[in-house]
Amino acid sequence: MLCFNIAEPESLHNAAAKWYREVRTHGGSAPVLLCGCKADLRHEKETLTMLSKLRTHPVTSEEVTPDKYYITESIKFDILMYTNKS
């Protein structure tokens, strides 16, 4: 299971660029579950204000969808299932 913070888009990038590689190196072809954590922050005013100042936004479910590829730095990140939790 790879987790990332919905309120920190960079953490999704890290999940793909760093941790997915680690799973593949040490876990072989084990299925990967991607979990977006802190979903309650997606609509929190303070979080939205902070991210707005950084010209970004919380990661949305549409940005990470099941059965599609998340591509970053030439990595094909095959997502079998995506969930988000508070």
UniProtKB/TrEMBL annotation:
* This protein's UniProt keywords: GTP-binding, Nucleotide-binding
This protein's source sits in the domain of life called Eukaryota
GTP-binding listed as a keyword: yes
> Known InterPro entries for this protein?
P-loop_NTPase, Small_GTPase, Small_GTPase_Rho
MF-aspect GO terms: GTP binding; GTPase activity
Q: Could you provide one GO biological process annotation from this protein's UniProt record?
A: ameboidal-type cell migration
Q: Which SUPFAM superfamilies match?
A: P-loop containing nucleoside triphosphate hydrolases
Q: What is this protein called?
A: Uncharacterized protein
State which gene encodes it. Answer: HaOG215534
